[in-house]
Design goal:
alpha/beta, Rossmann fold, two-stranded antiparallel ribbon, 5 helices
């Protein structure tokens, strides 16, 4: 008997064309159905009304920044894994993202392998398979084994 597979949905809210392409490609490769609204207002509306498994959001966005978007997702859909992207990987941005409940933070340009590894680690931690600490995740960063 075949096991029914749940469709995993992702939303990419990234303005930077290269980062947008890398995030979308990574999610599609990891078998997510990816939505990427062209208009920022459509992104905000989708997040208010629909639940996603993963959201990738850029911090520097028009109208509503990534941190505000993260707060809205946490209050409306607390089970959604949110990963923030920024041009500045400062300790302050990473700490703020972590304190607001982001599953991860990556600096641009996006490293597809690191993004994929962070998503997989966060999903495993949520399912209770492995604690984030054992995967080397601290302050939104992940150490990848050599």
């Amino acid at each position: 008997m075949r096991r029914k597979t749940k469709v995993r949905r992702a939303l990419v809210a990234v303005n930077d064309p290269e980062a947008h392409a890398a995030a979308s490609k990574t999610l599609e490769r990891d078998r997510y159905v990816v939505e990427a609204p062209a208009e920022w207002s459509a992104t905000v509306a989708k997040i208010a009304s629909e639940a996603y498994d993963v959201v990738i959001a850029e911090i520097e966005m028009p109208v509503v920044g990534g941190f505000d978007l993260l707060k809205a997702i946490r209050s409306n859909h607390p089970g959604t894994l949110v990963f923030l992207l920024g041009r500045n990987g400062s300790d302050e941005n990473i700490r703020r993202a972590t304190n607001l409940g982001a599953a991860g933070y990556l600096s641009m340009p996006v490293n597809e392998h690191k993004l994929s590894a962070q998503i997989k680690a966060a999903r495993a931690a949520v399912r209770g398979l492995r604690p984030l600490k054992s995967l080397g995740i601290k302050e939104g960063r992940m150490k990848l084994a050599s």
